[in-house]
Amino acid sequence: MARDPEQVAHRTSAQEPAPERDPGPTPDTPRTDYTGAIYGSLLAASVVAGAGALGPHPRAELVALLLCTGLVFWAAHAYVRFVGNRLRHQSVTWREIRQVCAREWPIVQAAFLPAVAVAISPLLGLGVEGAGWLALGLAVAQQVGWATATVIRAGASTGAVASVAAVNLVLGLIIVAAKVALH
Q1: CB burial string 115-151: b at 16+ within 10 A, e below
Q2: Beta-carbon contacts of residue 122 (< 8 Å; ≥ 6 apart)
Q3: Helix (H) and strand (E) counts for the chain?
Q4: What is the pLDDT of residues 79-103, one digit of tens each?
Q5: CA-CA distance, 40 to 136, in Å (whole number)?
Q6: What is the pTM of this model?
Q7: Which three-class secondary structure state does DSSP give residue 53?
Q8: In the predicted model, is pLDDT for residue 28 greater than 90?
Q9: Are 139 and 41 in contact (CB under 8 A)?
């Protein structure tokens, strides 16, 4: 005897509650995704650590190096996303270009604070070496801060927050150790 599929579906759904579907990870939103800022802070710290001996205008050169490196990496990240979108969609819209550029902009923003620190370092009575250390310290601090803010806003446990902060601090300290070893 053939059964009516609607009756079978109705009887099954009335007898057993449907299992809840796991929606999976929630997509990152601008409120929780500080990946670019974290990456940009690591990048800025690395630039300062590797800057070594600069030319006749070391502060201006370090500011330019920080900002140019941030811009180049921002453009590279945006380009890679465009290529990925092109492979998926066959074309990239102007809206997607604006969205990707905006999403990747924190890479550049992360270079601003260390660059400003270098630029104003004479007002603080710092020499070139002191300016580099100030910029490096700020880059590491903002990296740890953005990483910590990311997991807090995502609702992570206290242990996860502490772990993320510690890992990012260790990454920053590795860069500091590299600066000490290189100079």
Answers
A1: bebbbebeeeebebeebbbbbbbbbbbbbbbbbbbbb
A2: 59, 131
A3: 7, 0
A4: 888 777 677 766 778 898 899 899 9
A5: 12
A6: 0.74
A7: coil
A8: no
A9: yes
